[in-house]
Amino acid sequence: MNNLDSSFKLIKKKLHEAGLKLTPQRELTVEVLLEKEKDHLSAEEIYMLVKSKNTGIGLATVYRTLEILTDLEIINKLTFQDGIARYDLNLNDEKHQHHHLLCLKCGKIEEVKNDMLLEIEIEIEKEYQFTVKDHRLTFHGICRNCSAN
After folding, report:
1. Which family is this protein grouped under (predicted)?
2. Cα dihedral 63, 69, 70, 75 sign
């Protein structure tokens, strides 16, 4: 079983545990999210890709599916400086999300997998008696491709 299959099964399981079915429309949306996992797509971009697979699906259906997947913490809704909500798979059940590098020239978003803020988080919890549930960090700069040009 490849990684795509195991991710698909995990999503199906999470939906089932929440009392929801993997309808054909949800299945197509999940399929697009898995295929384009590294792309941080907007709802409209996801809709266009889903619509290319099934012309009968509506934008409202895709939005509802994204909302359900966000509520179930299967995906994260991220908003960068362009104000457009983008979606990112969250299948590892980790306490924290990864961080992002955002190129200010081309808009490319790259993921940083290591959580380098864990020590700072522990200090914040001690110093302020504040229980941190999550943190998000985006570095704004110029990617290697744009720097080379």
Report:
1. Belongs to the Fur family.
2. negative
